[in-house]
Fold:
Amino acid sequence: MGFYAGTVGYTNKTYGNYVRAVRGGQCGTTPTVIELSSFAATPKAGQVILAWSTASELDNAGFNLYRAESEKGEYAKINTFLILSQGSSTQGASYEFIDTDVQNRKTYYYKLEDIDLNGTSTVHGAVSATPRLIYGIEK
Structure:
């Protein structure tokens, strides 16, 4: 299953393959389902922290995350259930997901999919990260 690159933004923030959503953000004026403010992958020892935030979410049902071992490779969904929308048309939200199904010293690529209430999806990304045993020291 391949995906096209959509809108990409970048920033940082998660824990053991679960998601934490935090309300916050500002009013957006774009007519798309979501206005993505940031999407980042932060490597740690044995995990990658995926974080994204929205400025607004109009009729957004939620999100899925996909991982591949090369940027143009085959992406597979890594979340078990839809990550439910926490934002609104006037307020965005921040989300985190920790991918612990990774190996140190291997680069992973991630894409974020938002799905609206009608089932239409938009894919954002790719972002990449390379987890390391002792991040910042091991080469």
